[in-house]
Design a protein that fits this description.
Largest sheet: 4 strands, antiparallel
Number of helices: 1
Shape: rod-shaped
Radius of gyration: 43 Å
Distance between the termini: 119 Å
Strand content: 15-25%
Strand order of the largest sheet: 3-4-5-6
Order of helices and strands: EEHEEEE
Structural class: alpha+beta
Number of domains: 1
Length: 173
């Protein structure tokens, strides 16, 4: 037996198929009024949601942009640090090779004609090298030399630097 329903439109009881074009067919009076209030609240909240969504989107994009700027600056700093470390490694290697050549020449073979006090470093951008040798301070005899080899580079992009190596070369091997 079909249940009688209250028609919200005409405020009278109607059946499921009353034929008067009522939208509340199949709903009880309580459910019909609840649906109307639900629809009204959805309309209100959807309007306010649209504005909130736009603001939320703008805030999210702003925060994302700030985060990306921070991350990209970390990559730039990391790249510069890596480049500086590479140049320092090349400079230290060149200075060590220069000291090894001086050791191979021996104490008596070290002079300013064979080992000039300044030299170009083509392996590094803007690279220059300097070489100093002097008697070792505090030595009892003059058979020891303090050799200092310095390699500097310009590098650009904030990666200029300098490496300095010291060694003692003696007449006794």
């Amino acid at each position: 037996m079909p249940r009688s329903l209250v028609c919200s439109r005409r405020n009278r009881r109607c059946g499921k198929n009353a034929g008067h074009g009522c939208r509340c067919r199949g709903m009880s009076a309580d459910r019909s009024s609840n649906m109307r209030s639900y629809r009204r609240s959805m309309r209100r909240s959807s309007v306010s949601r649209r504005g909130l969504t736009l603001i939320e989107l703008m805030v999210t994009v702003s925060l994302l942009a700030i985060g990306l700027v921070g991350v990209s600056s970390m990559f730039i700093v990391g790249y510069r640090t890596q480049l500086h470390a590479h140049y320092a490694s090349v400079g230290a290697d060149l200075a060590a090779k220069k000291i090894e050549r001086m050791r191979a020449a021996g104490f008596n073979g070290i002079d300013s004609t064979q080992f000039p006090p300044s030299f170009a470093v083509t392996e590094l951008p803007g690279g220059q090298g300097s070489l100093t040798f002097q008697p070792f301070p505090g030595a009892s005899s003059q058979n020891q030399l303090l050799v200092t080899v310095a390699v500097a580079w310009a590098g650009g992009r904030g990666v200029a630097g300098r490496v300095e190596l010291n060694s003692i070369i003696s007449n006794h091997g």
